[in-house]
Amino acid sequence: MSFQAIDPASGERIADVPTATHDQVLAALEGCSAAQRPWALRPVPERCVPVRRLGVLLRERRDELALLMASEMGKPVGQGAAEAEKCAWVCDYYADHAERFLAPVPAETDASRSYWTYRPLGIVLGIMPWNFPLWQVVRYAVPAMVAGNGALLKHAPSVPGCARALHDLFRDAGFPEGLFANVFADLETTGALIDHPLVRAVSLTGSVRAGRSVAERAGRNLKKCVLELGGSDPSVVLEDADLELAVASCAQGRFLNAGQSCIAAKRFVVVDEVREEFEARMSERVGSIVMGEPSNPSTEIGPMARVDLRDQLHDQVLRTVEAGARLVQGGTIPDRPGAWYPATLLADVGPGMAAYAEELFGPVAVILPARDERDAVRIANDTSFGLGASVYTRDDERGERIAAEMFEAGNCFVNGIVKSDPRLPFGGVKDSGYGRELSPMGILEFTNAKTVWVR
Length: 455
Fold this sequence. Notes:
Elements (H helix, E strand, L loop, with lengths): L1 E5 L6 E6 L3 H20 L2 H17 L1 H12 L3 H25 L3 E2 L6 E8 L2 E5 L7 H12 L3 E5 L5 H13 L7 E3 L4 H9 L3 E7 L2 H13 L3 E5 L4 E5 L5 H13 L9 E7 H16 L19 H16 L3 E4 L14 E4 L6 H4 L6 E7 L2 H9 L3 E2 L1 E5 L3 H11 L4 E4 L14 E2 L2 E2 L4 H6 L2 E8 L1
Parallel strand pairs: 5-6, 5-8, 6-7, 8-9, 10-11, 10-16, 11-14, 13-14, 16-17
Antiparallel strand pairs: 1-2, 3-4, 4-20, 9-19, 12-13, 15-18
Helix pairs in contact: 2-4, 3-4, 3-6, 4-5, 9-10
Protein backbone atom coordinates (compact mmCIF):
# COMPACT_ATOMS: atom_id res chain seq x y z
CA MET A 1 0.00 0.00 0.00
CA SER A 2 1.11 3.57 -0.66
CA PHE A 3 -0.35 7.04 -0.31
CA GLN A 4 -1.28 8.01 -3.88
CA ALA A 5 -2.51 11.37 -5.08
CA ILE A 6 -4.40 11.15 -8.38
CA ASP A 7 -5.51 14.36 -10.03
CA PRO A 8 -9.31 13.93 -10.15
CA ALA A 9 -9.59 16.33 -13.08
CA SER A 10 -7.40 14.20 -15.37
CA GLY A 11 -6.99 10.82 -13.68
CA GLU A 12 -3.20 11.23 -13.74
CA ARG A 13 -1.09 10.08 -10.78
CA ILE A 14 0.78 13.06 -9.30
CA ALA A 15 2.32 11.55 -6.15
CA ASP A 16 3.13 8.11 -4.75
CA VAL A 17 4.42 8.00 -1.18
CA PRO A 18 5.48 4.67 0.35
CA THR A 19 3.69 3.61 3.50
CA ALA A 20 5.80 4.13 6.59
CA THR A 21 7.31 1.09 8.28
CA HIS A 22 6.29 0.08 11.78
CA ASP A 23 9.63 1.34 13.11
CA GLN A 24 9.22 4.70 11.39
CA VAL A 25 5.75 5.18 12.87
CA LEU A 26 6.96 4.13 16.32
CA ALA A 27 9.84 6.59 16.10
CA ALA A 28 7.41 9.41 15.25
CA LEU A 29 5.19 8.42 18.16
CA GLU A 30 8.08 8.35 20.62
CA GLY A 31 9.36 11.68 19.29
CA CYS A 32 5.92 13.21 19.75
CA SER A 33 5.80 11.91 23.32
CA ALA A 34 9.26 13.29 24.11
CA ALA A 35 8.21 16.72 22.81
CA GLN A 36 4.84 16.68 24.57
CA ARG A 37 6.09 16.22 28.12
CA PRO A 38 7.96 19.56 28.39
CA TRP A 39 5.33 21.25 26.19
CA ALA A 40 2.64 20.39 28.75
CA LEU A 41 4.59 22.27 31.44
CA ARG A 42 4.74 25.52 29.49
CA PRO A 43 2.29 28.27 30.49
CA VAL A 44 -0.67 28.53 28.16
CA PRO A 45 0.36 31.97 26.77
CA GLU A 46 3.68 30.43 25.66
CA ARG A 47 1.84 27.62 23.88
CA CYS A 48 -0.22 30.22 22.03
CA VAL A 49 2.80 31.89 20.42
CA PRO A 50 3.36 29.28 17.67
CA VAL A 51 -0.41 28.95 17.25
CA ARG A 52 -0.65 32.60 16.33
CA ARG A 53 2.33 32.22 13.99
CA LEU A 54 0.61 29.23 12.36
CA GLY A 55 -2.33 31.48 11.51
CA VAL A 56 0.03 33.96 9.84
CA LEU A 57 1.66 31.21 7.76
CA LEU A 58 -1.70 29.80 6.66
CA ARG A 59 -2.64 33.20 5.27
CA GLU A 60 0.76 33.71 3.64
CA ARG A 61 0.64 30.30 1.93
CA ARG A 62 -3.07 30.39 1.16
CA ASP A 63 -2.78 30.39 -2.62
CA GLU A 64 -0.22 27.56 -2.85
CA LEU A 65 -2.28 25.49 -0.42
CA ALA A 66 -5.38 26.10 -2.55
CA LEU A 67 -3.58 24.85 -5.65
CA LEU A 68 -2.40 21.78 -3.76
CA MET A 69 -5.95 20.92 -2.71
CA ALA A 70 -7.18 21.52 -6.25
CA SER A 71 -4.67 19.03 -7.65
CA GLU A 72 -5.11 16.33 -5.00
CA MET A 73 -8.87 16.34 -4.39
CA GLY A 74 -10.43 18.74 -6.90
CA LYS A 75 -11.46 21.63 -4.66
CA PRO A 76 -11.90 24.88 -6.62
CA VAL A 77 -9.09 27.29 -5.74
CA GLY A 78 -11.42 29.95 -4.37
CA GLN A 79 -12.87 27.46 -1.90
CA GLY A 80 -9.39 26.16 -1.05
CA ALA A 81 -8.18 29.67 -0.25
CA ALA A 82 -11.23 30.15 1.98
CA GLU A 83 -10.39 26.88 3.76
CA ALA A 84 -6.88 28.10 4.54
CA GLU A 85 -8.28 31.39 5.84
CA LYS A 86 -10.74 29.53 8.06
CA CYS A 87 -7.89 27.47 9.50
CA ALA A 88 -6.10 30.73 10.34
CA TRP A 89 -9.28 31.94 12.07
CA VAL A 90 -9.19 28.87 14.35
CA CYS A 91 -5.59 29.68 15.25
CA ASP A 92 -6.53 33.28 16.10
CA TYR A 93 -9.54 32.17 18.13
CA TYR A 94 -7.67 29.78 20.39
CA ALA A 95 -4.63 32.05 20.71
CA ASP A 96 -6.99 34.79 21.92
CA HIS A 97 -9.10 32.69 24.30
CA ALA A 98 -7.22 29.54 25.37
CA GLU A 99 -5.88 30.97 28.62
CA ARG A 100 -9.41 31.79 29.76
CA PHE A 101 -10.82 28.45 28.58
CA LEU A 102 -8.15 26.49 30.45
CA ALA A 103 -8.13 28.58 33.64
CA PRO A 104 -8.65 26.74 36.95
CA VAL A 105 -12.24 26.82 38.21
CA PRO A 106 -12.58 27.53 41.97
CA ALA A 107 -15.16 25.67 44.06
CA GLU A 108 -16.48 26.31 47.58
CA THR A 109 -15.98 23.11 49.65
CA ASP A 110 -14.82 22.07 53.12
CA ALA A 111 -11.20 22.57 52.01
CA SER A 112 -9.09 25.66 52.53
CA ARG A 113 -8.80 25.80 48.78
CA SER A 114 -10.35 23.60 46.10
CA TYR A 115 -10.71 23.85 42.37
CA TRP A 116 -10.47 21.86 39.18
CA THR A 117 -7.89 22.42 36.52
CA TYR A 118 -7.55 21.19 32.96
CA ARG A 119 -4.45 19.14 32.21
CA PRO A 120 -3.48 17.50 28.90
CA LEU A 121 -3.98 13.79 28.30
CA GLY A 122 -0.82 13.17 26.23
CA ILE A 123 -0.89 12.36 22.53
CA VAL A 124 -4.07 12.68 20.47
CA LEU A 125 -4.16 10.58 17.30
CA GLY A 126 -6.03 12.31 14.46
CA ILE A 127 -7.45 10.12 11.67
CA MET A 128 -8.51 12.64 9.07
CA PRO A 129 -10.38 12.65 5.71
CA TRP A 130 -9.59 14.11 2.29
CA ASN A 131 -12.56 16.42 1.76
CA PHE A 132 -11.31 19.34 3.86
CA PRO A 133 -7.68 18.27 4.13
CA LEU A 134 -6.46 21.35 6.02
CA TRP A 135 -9.53 22.33 8.05
CA GLN A 136 -10.24 18.93 9.58
CA VAL A 137 -6.65 18.64 10.80
CA VAL A 138 -6.21 22.18 12.12
CA ARG A 139 -9.53 22.21 13.98
CA TYR A 140 -8.55 19.07 15.94
CA ALA A 141 -4.81 19.67 16.33
CA VAL A 142 -4.71 23.33 17.35
CA PRO A 143 -7.01 23.15 20.40
CA ALA A 144 -5.49 19.80 21.43
CA MET A 145 -1.97 21.23 21.28
CA VAL A 146 -2.85 24.51 23.00
CA ALA A 147 -4.25 22.36 25.81
CA GLY A 148 -0.79 20.78 26.13
CA ASN A 149 -1.19 17.61 24.08
CA GLY A 150 0.86 16.30 21.17
CA ALA A 151 -0.79 15.61 17.82
CA LEU A 152 -0.10 12.56 15.68
CA LEU A 153 -1.71 12.75 12.23
CA LYS A 154 -2.78 9.83 10.05
CA HIS A 155 -4.19 11.58 6.99
CA ALA A 156 -6.24 10.18 4.10
CA PRO A 157 -4.13 8.19 1.59
CA SER A 158 -5.22 10.38 -1.34
CA VAL A 159 -3.81 13.68 -0.01
CA PRO A 160 -0.14 13.04 0.88
CA GLY A 161 0.88 16.49 -0.33
CA CYS A 162 -1.56 18.15 2.06
CA ALA A 163 -0.26 15.98 4.91
CA ARG A 164 3.31 17.09 4.19
CA ALA A 165 2.28 20.72 3.85
CA LEU A 166 0.66 20.58 7.28
CA HIS A 167 3.82 19.09 8.77
CA ASP A 168 5.83 21.97 7.28
CA LEU A 169 3.36 24.57 8.54
CA PHE A 170 3.49 23.36 12.15
CA ARG A 171 7.29 23.07 12.01
CA ASP A 172 7.76 26.52 10.51
CA ALA A 173 5.36 28.06 13.03
CA GLY A 174 7.80 27.16 15.79
CA PHE A 175 6.17 24.22 17.53
CA PRO A 176 8.71 21.90 19.20
CA GLU A 177 10.19 19.34 16.83
CA GLY A 178 8.00 16.24 16.71
CA LEU A 179 5.06 17.69 18.68
CA PHE A 180 2.98 17.59 15.49
CA ALA A 181 3.91 14.44 13.59
CA ASN A 182 2.53 13.17 10.30
CA VAL A 183 2.73 9.42 9.68
CA PHE A 184 1.92 7.65 6.41
CA ALA A 185 0.48 4.68 8.28
CA ASP A 186 -1.63 1.87 6.83
CA LEU A 187 -4.80 0.60 8.52
CA GLU A 188 -3.05 -2.13 10.48
CA THR A 189 -0.47 0.26 11.88
CA THR A 190 -3.16 2.83 12.65
CA GLY A 191 -4.96 0.22 14.72
CA ALA A 192 -1.72 -0.53 16.56
CA LEU A 193 -1.37 3.19 17.30
CA ILE A 194 -4.80 3.23 18.94
CA ASP A 195 -3.63 0.30 21.08
CA HIS A 196 -0.32 1.94 22.03
CA PRO A 197 -0.14 3.29 25.60
CA LEU A 198 1.46 6.58 24.46
CA VAL A 199 -1.69 7.45 22.48
CA ARG A 200 -4.24 8.64 25.00
CA ALA A 201 -7.14 9.75 22.75
CA VAL A 202 -8.38 9.62 19.16
CA SER A 203 -10.12 12.16 16.95
CA LEU A 204 -11.72 10.76 13.80
CA THR A 205 -13.56 12.48 10.99
CA GLY A 206 -14.81 9.91 8.52
CA SER A 207 -17.46 7.36 7.68
CA VAL A 208 -19.84 5.61 10.05
CA ARG A 209 -18.03 2.35 9.35
CA ALA A 210 -14.67 3.89 10.29
CA GLY A 211 -16.21 5.48 13.37
CA ARG A 212 -17.55 2.18 14.66
CA SER A 213 -14.19 0.50 14.10
CA VAL A 214 -12.24 3.25 15.87
CA ALA A 215 -14.73 3.50 18.73
CA GLU A 216 -14.59 -0.26 19.29
CA ARG A 217 -10.79 -0.31 19.37
CA ALA A 218 -10.52 2.79 21.52
CA GLY A 219 -13.14 1.38 23.87
CA ARG A 220 -11.17 -1.84 24.34
CA ASN A 221 -8.24 0.33 25.36
CA LEU A 222 -10.33 2.65 27.54
CA LYS A 223 -9.39 5.69 25.50
CA LYS A 224 -11.54 8.68 24.77
CA CYS A 225 -12.45 9.43 21.16
CA VAL A 226 -14.30 12.20 19.35
CA LEU A 227 -16.14 11.05 16.23
CA GLU A 228 -17.43 13.35 13.48
CA LEU A 229 -19.07 11.00 11.02
CA GLY A 230 -21.47 11.18 8.11
CA GLY A 231 -24.57 13.27 7.69
CA SER A 232 -27.70 13.52 5.60
CA ASP A 233 -28.66 17.01 6.64
CA PRO A 234 -32.21 18.20 5.96
CA SER A 235 -33.18 21.71 4.96
CA VAL A 236 -36.83 22.26 5.80
CA VAL A 237 -38.55 24.89 3.65
CA LEU A 238 -41.86 26.06 5.14
CA GLU A 239 -44.73 27.84 3.39
CA ASP A 240 -43.70 31.25 4.75
CA ALA A 241 -40.05 30.95 3.70
CA ASP A 242 -38.23 33.60 1.69
CA LEU A 243 -37.78 31.36 -1.34
CA GLU A 244 -35.06 33.47 -2.92
CA LEU A 245 -32.99 33.13 0.27
CA ALA A 246 -33.88 29.47 0.71
CA VAL A 247 -32.89 28.47 -2.83
CA ALA A 248 -29.62 30.43 -2.76
CA SER A 249 -28.70 29.08 0.66
CA CYS A 250 -29.70 25.48 -0.06
CA ALA A 251 -27.76 25.47 -3.33
CA GLN A 252 -24.67 26.89 -1.64
CA GLY A 253 -24.91 24.37 1.18
CA ARG A 254 -25.39 21.44 -1.21
CA PHE A 255 -22.81 22.16 -3.90
CA LEU A 256 -19.90 23.67 -1.95
CA ASN A 257 -16.88 21.38 -2.36
CA ALA A 258 -18.87 19.48 -5.01
CA GLY A 259 -21.24 18.36 -2.28
CA GLN A 260 -18.48 16.38 -0.55
CA SER A 261 -19.17 17.54 2.98
CA CYS A 262 -20.66 15.84 6.01
CA ILE A 263 -22.69 18.97 6.77
CA ALA A 264 -23.84 19.64 3.22
CA ALA A 265 -27.54 20.38 2.80
CA LYS A 266 -28.36 17.00 1.29
CA ARG A 267 -32.16 16.73 1.60
CA PHE A 268 -34.56 19.60 0.84
CA VAL A 269 -37.80 18.87 2.69
CA VAL A 270 -40.33 21.26 1.17
CA VAL A 271 -43.98 21.68 2.16
CA ASP A 272 -46.51 21.20 -0.63
CA GLU A 273 -47.66 24.82 -0.64
CA VAL A 274 -44.35 26.11 -2.06
CA ARG A 275 -42.76 22.95 -3.46
CA GLU A 276 -43.52 23.59 -7.12
CA GLU A 277 -42.05 27.09 -7.02
CA PHE A 278 -39.05 25.94 -4.96
CA GLU A 279 -38.34 23.17 -7.47
CA ALA A 280 -38.53 25.54 -10.43
CA ARG A 281 -36.16 28.02 -8.82
CA MET A 282 -33.78 25.32 -7.65
CA SER A 283 -33.77 23.69 -11.09
CA GLU A 284 -32.79 27.00 -12.66
CA ARG A 285 -30.00 27.47 -10.12
CA VAL A 286 -28.65 23.92 -10.47
CA GLY A 287 -28.68 24.21 -14.24
CA SER A 288 -26.55 27.36 -14.06
CA ILE A 289 -23.79 25.95 -11.85
CA VAL A 290 -20.41 26.15 -13.56
CA MET A 291 -18.46 22.90 -13.56
CA GLY A 292 -14.86 23.33 -14.59
CA GLU A 293 -11.19 23.00 -13.82
CA PRO A 294 -10.57 23.52 -10.09
CA SER A 295 -7.66 25.85 -10.86
CA ASN A 296 -10.06 28.30 -12.58
CA PRO A 297 -11.30 30.99 -10.15
CA SER A 298 -14.73 31.05 -11.84
CA THR A 299 -15.38 27.33 -11.25
CA GLU A 300 -18.22 26.54 -8.83
CA ILE A 301 -17.77 22.76 -8.75
CA GLY A 302 -14.73 20.81 -9.85
CA PRO A 303 -14.44 17.06 -10.20
CA MET A 304 -15.23 14.76 -7.32
CA ALA A 305 -12.24 13.49 -5.39
CA ARG A 306 -12.09 9.98 -6.85
CA VAL A 307 -13.63 8.02 -9.70
CA ASP A 308 -14.87 5.24 -7.41
CA LEU A 309 -16.73 7.78 -5.29
CA ARG A 310 -18.27 9.32 -8.43
CA ASP A 311 -19.40 5.92 -9.65
CA GLN A 312 -20.92 5.09 -6.27
CA LEU A 313 -22.86 8.37 -6.30
CA HIS A 314 -24.12 7.76 -9.84
CA ASP A 315 -25.34 4.31 -8.80
CA GLN A 316 -27.33 5.93 -5.98
CA VAL A 317 -28.89 8.36 -8.47
CA LEU A 318 -29.83 5.55 -10.88
CA ARG A 319 -31.34 3.43 -8.12
CA THR A 320 -33.36 6.40 -6.87
CA VAL A 321 -34.76 7.16 -10.31
CA GLU A 322 -35.55 3.48 -10.91
CA ALA A 323 -37.53 3.54 -7.64
CA GLY A 324 -39.75 6.35 -8.93
CA ALA A 325 -37.96 9.65 -8.34
CA ARG A 326 -37.80 12.29 -11.04
CA LEU A 327 -34.49 13.44 -12.53
CA VAL A 328 -34.79 17.22 -12.92
CA GLN A 329 -31.21 18.22 -13.73
CA GLY A 330 -27.90 16.47 -14.38
CA GLY A 331 -27.44 12.79 -13.62
CA THR A 332 -25.18 11.96 -16.59
CA ILE A 333 -21.47 11.12 -16.33
CA PRO A 334 -19.49 13.35 -18.73
CA ASP A 335 -17.47 11.60 -21.43
CA ARG A 336 -14.04 12.73 -20.25
CA PRO A 337 -11.21 11.43 -18.05
CA GLY A 338 -11.38 12.14 -14.35
CA ALA A 339 -14.02 12.03 -11.63
CA TRP A 340 -16.48 14.54 -13.09
CA TYR A 341 -20.15 14.63 -12.15
CA PRO A 342 -22.57 17.48 -12.90
CA ALA A 343 -24.77 19.30 -10.43
CA THR A 344 -27.85 17.09 -10.19
CA LEU A 345 -31.37 17.55 -8.84
CA LEU A 346 -33.84 14.79 -7.97
CA ALA A 347 -37.49 15.41 -7.06
CA ASP A 348 -40.34 13.33 -5.64
CA VAL A 349 -37.96 11.37 -3.43
CA GLY A 350 -39.60 9.24 -0.76
CA PRO A 351 -39.13 6.30 1.61
CA GLY A 352 -37.53 3.19 0.16
CA MET A 353 -35.35 5.14 -2.26
CA ALA A 354 -31.56 5.28 -2.04
CA ALA A 355 -31.54 9.09 -1.90
CA TYR A 356 -33.98 9.01 1.03
CA ALA A 357 -32.08 6.62 3.28
CA GLU A 358 -28.43 6.89 2.21
CA GLU A 359 -25.91 9.71 2.42
CA LEU A 360 -25.19 11.16 -1.03
CA PHE A 361 -21.62 12.43 -0.84
CA GLY A 362 -21.44 14.50 -4.00
CA PRO A 363 -23.20 17.20 -6.07
CA VAL A 364 -26.72 15.73 -5.92
CA ALA A 365 -29.63 17.52 -4.27
CA VAL A 366 -32.97 15.85 -3.54
CA ILE A 367 -36.41 17.32 -2.91
CA LEU A 368 -38.67 15.45 -0.50
CA PRO A 369 -42.35 16.48 -0.37
CA ALA A 370 -44.02 17.23 2.96
CA ARG A 371 -47.62 18.12 3.78
CA ASP A 372 -46.98 20.70 6.49
CA GLU A 373 -44.56 21.69 9.27
CA ARG A 374 -45.23 18.63 11.40
CA ASP A 375 -44.72 16.28 8.46
CA ALA A 376 -41.58 18.13 7.37
CA VAL A 377 -39.97 17.82 10.78
CA ARG A 378 -40.87 14.13 10.88
CA ILE A 379 -39.21 13.56 7.52
CA ALA A 380 -36.19 15.65 8.51
CA ASN A 381 -35.65 13.44 11.55
CA ASP A 382 -36.34 10.20 9.67
CA THR A 383 -32.66 9.38 9.21
CA SER A 384 -29.97 7.50 11.09
CA PHE A 385 -27.80 10.64 10.95
CA GLY A 386 -27.91 13.69 13.17
CA LEU A 387 -25.16 16.13 12.25
CA GLY A 388 -26.96 19.25 11.05
CA ALA A 389 -30.37 20.61 10.05
CA SER A 390 -31.77 23.91 8.88
CA VAL A 391 -35.19 25.48 8.55
CA TYR A 392 -36.37 28.36 6.38
CA THR A 393 -39.23 30.57 7.57
CA ARG A 394 -39.96 34.29 7.90
CA ASP A 395 -41.12 33.65 11.48
CA ASP A 396 -37.91 33.68 13.55
CA GLU A 397 -39.62 32.39 16.68
CA ARG A 398 -41.12 29.49 14.74
CA GLY A 399 -37.76 28.66 13.21
CA GLU A 400 -35.93 28.84 16.52
CA ARG A 401 -38.50 26.55 18.18
CA ILE A 402 -38.01 23.95 15.44
CA ALA A 403 -34.22 24.26 15.57
CA ALA A 404 -33.89 24.20 19.34
CA GLU A 405 -36.60 21.74 20.29
CA MET A 406 -37.60 19.56 17.34
CA PHE A 407 -34.61 18.73 15.14
CA GLU A 408 -32.57 15.66 16.12
CA ALA A 409 -29.15 17.03 15.20
CA GLY A 410 -26.10 18.64 16.73
CA ASN A 411 -26.02 21.82 14.64
CA CYS A 412 -29.32 23.50 13.84
CA PHE A 413 -29.62 26.71 11.82
CA VAL A 414 -32.48 29.04 10.95
CA ASN A 415 -32.45 30.72 7.53
CA GLY A 416 -28.85 29.76 6.77
CA ILE A 417 -26.64 26.85 5.78
CA VAL A 418 -25.19 24.61 8.46
CA LYS A 419 -21.52 25.51 8.90
CA SER A 420 -18.78 25.11 11.46
CA ASP A 421 -17.63 28.19 13.38
CA PRO A 422 -14.72 28.29 15.90
CA ARG A 423 -16.99 30.09 18.37
CA LEU A 424 -19.63 27.33 18.43
CA PRO A 425 -19.41 23.64 19.41
CA PHE A 426 -19.56 21.30 16.45
CA GLY A 427 -20.58 17.63 16.40
CA GLY A 428 -23.45 15.23 15.92
CA VAL A 429 -25.76 12.65 17.45
CA LYS A 430 -26.99 9.23 16.33
CA ASP A 431 -24.83 7.78 13.52
CA SER A 432 -23.12 11.14 13.06
CA GLY A 433 -20.93 10.46 16.09
CA TYR A 434 -20.28 12.05 19.47
CA GLY A 435 -18.03 14.54 21.18
CA ARG A 436 -17.56 18.16 20.21
CA GLU A 437 -14.95 20.18 18.36
CA LEU A 438 -14.37 23.95 18.35
CA SER A 439 -15.55 26.49 20.97
CA PRO A 440 -14.51 26.10 24.64
CA MET A 441 -15.95 22.57 24.53
CA GLY A 442 -13.52 21.56 21.78
CA ILE A 443 -10.38 22.52 23.69
CA LEU A 444 -11.62 20.76 26.83
CA GLU A 445 -12.45 17.44 25.08
CA PHE A 446 -8.87 16.18 25.33
CA THR A 447 -8.06 17.32 28.86
CA ASN A 448 -8.19 15.76 32.31
CA ALA A 449 -10.53 17.84 34.47
CA LYS A 450 -8.43 17.33 37.59
CA THR A 451 -9.86 18.11 41.03
CA VAL A 452 -7.44 19.68 43.53
CA TRP A 453 -8.38 19.81 47.25
CA VAL A 454 -6.14 21.56 49.80
CA ARG A 455 -6.73 21.75 53.57
